[in-house]
Specification:
Keywords: DNA-binding. Pfam families: DUF3276. GO terms for molecular function: purine-rich negative regulatory element binding; RNA polymerase II transcription regulatory region sequence-specific DNA binding. By secondary structure, the chain is an alpha+beta fold. 33% of the residues lie in helices and 41% in strands. It has one domain: Nuclear Transport Factor 2, Chain: A. It contains 2 helices and 4 strands; from the N terminus they run E-E-E-E-H-H.
């Protein structure tokens, strides 16, 4: 795979997360120098007449920022869960995901 500068970028690992009208892709890629980075892509499907187009937004996350990024993400999610929406049962969303995943396995 080549990026817009013509450099080869090899995909090492990929995880897809469907979330309603959005899909998130977490892709670990390598550089020519055998270094690794993560791309996080949000893809939204949009109707365009009789067909669909996809709007994509991408974040590049480098190894030196992994810890800081994960820490800030977890802190932000915890803040929403405990301070802004303390009465919401967030476990229900995990259970819904597990149920839909198990349904997909059997189809």
């Amino acid at each position: 795979m080549e990026d817009n500068r013509g450099y080869d970028r090899e995909e090492i690992f990929s995880k897809k997360v469907k979330a309603g009208k959005r899909t998130y892709f977490f892709d670990v890629k390598s550089t020519r120098a055998n270094d690794y980075y993560l791309t996080i892509t949000e893809s939204k499907r949009k109707a365009n007449g009789d067909s669909f187009t996809y709007e994509k937004h991408k974040i590049f996350l480098y190894k030196e920022d992994f810890f800081k990024f994960a820490e800030a993400l977890n802190e932000s999610v915890d803040y929403v869960k405990t301070e802004l929406l303390p009465d919401v049962d967030f476990d229900q969303y995990e259970q819904e995901e597990e149920e839909s995943s198990s349904e997909l396995k059997w189809e």
